[in-house]
Amino acid sequence: MEWCVHNEKLGVRKTIEEVKHWLQSQEAATANPPVVEFERYACVEDCAQCVRQPFVLVNQRESLTAPSGEELTKLLLNRIHDRHKP
């Protein structure tokens, strides 16, 4: 999961913190927790998206967007949960 430092003001910083917190809770609760790598960049070269709404890049190419940081958090947690079936 990658994000631009300039997009943090739109809620991405809190989203990343909440996703990390959820992942930590999964590490304690399950034998096979999901693994997600995080990378913060000065720029991810999608400035048009970056100024409009919260987004992250998944798998280095897929942009996930939402109208708010809270909605992006829900989207990411649902996606991680759906893709990681023990």
TrEMBL record:
It comes from Alicyclobacillus acidoterrestris (strain ATCC 49025 / DSM 3922 / CIP 106132 / NCIMB 13137 / GD3B). This is YuzB family protein.
